[in-house]
Amino acid sequence: MAPRAIGSATVSFGLVSIPVKLYTAAQSAASVSFHMLHRKCGSRIKQQLFCPKDNEVVPRDETVKGYEFAKDRYVTFTPEELEALEEKDTQTIEITEFVPLDKVDPIFFDKAYYLGPDRGGEKAYGLLARAMEETRRCALAKYAARGKGYLVLVRPVRGALVLQQLHYADEIRPVSEIPLGEANVRQGELELATKLVEQISHERFEPEKYEDEVRKRVLEQIQRKVDGEEVSLAPSETSGGQIIDLMEALKASLSSKRAGPRADAPAVGSEAQKERKPAKRAARRGADSSAKGSRK
Question: How much is the average pLDDT of 188-209?
C-alpha cells in the first residue's frame, strides 16, 4: 500500500518553486502504550482537572493558560492572544542557504519526514536532489506549520529528499556543562582501545541488524496474556565477575572478539533456535506445575 501524504508544501529557493508532499519517515506506532485501568473492575480511568484550592473538578471551558514568571505568580493569556502570536502557516519551505552535510552536527536532528514531488514538480524535484548529491550539500530552510516556526534541513537520500526538523541553537545544551572529570590515559591503554575499535568496526551502518528487544518481549508477553497463557518471568541472570583493571578489561575484550561465536551456537533465526523456544516454554510450564504440586 502506498504511503499517504500528511500534508503539502512548496520548496522555494531563488525564483524556483517545487510543489511537494510530506510523508512520515518513521512509524509513530512503534512504541507499545498502555492504558490506566481501575484494578477493581478493569474499566479505563478518565483524567479530570482538579483545583486543590477550591477542592473541585474544573471543566475544561473554565480553564485559562498562564505562564509562571515567579513562584505561584502567573500572567494569563486568552486563546485570542495566543493565536495572534502564532506563526502564520505559509506551507512554504523557504531555503535560506546550502551547507556541507557533514558540517551539521546530528545532535541538532529532531523529527524526519520524506518529501515527494507533487503533480508537476517531478523534474524540479529531481534536479534539486541531484544537485545536492553532486555538491554534497544540504539546504537549511524555514518552515511554518501548526502555528510554529521551524528550522529544517533538506537533504538528499538516494534520489529522494528528506525534511529534517532541527533544534534551534538555544535548545542544545552545551557539552561544556557536562562534568567529565580528569582522565589520565596511558599510551598502552589507548593502543588496546584503538585495536578493539578497529576490530569491531564496519564500513556501513546497517540498522536492520538491530531491533528493539524490550518491545519484542513486551509484545510476546501481551500475546501470551491474550491467548490465556500463564506468564511467569524468568529471573535475570547474574553477570560474571567484574574486571576492575582497565588494561585487563581491554585485553579480555580483544580475546573474546578474536575467539568469535561458539561453533555449536545456532545462528540468529535458525531452525535450531526456533525449535528450542517451545521446549524452553514447555520446561518452564512443567517446572511451574511441579512447584504448584509441591506447594499443595
Answer: 87
Pick the CATH number of 7-26+86-171 from 2.40.290.10, 3.40.50.300, 3.10.180.10, 1.10.510.10: 2.40.290.10
Strands 7-13 and 92-100: parallel
**Mean pLDDT, residues 13-22:** 89
Whole-structure pTM value: 0.66
Predicted confidence (pLDDT) per residue in 212-221, tens digit: 888 888 888 8
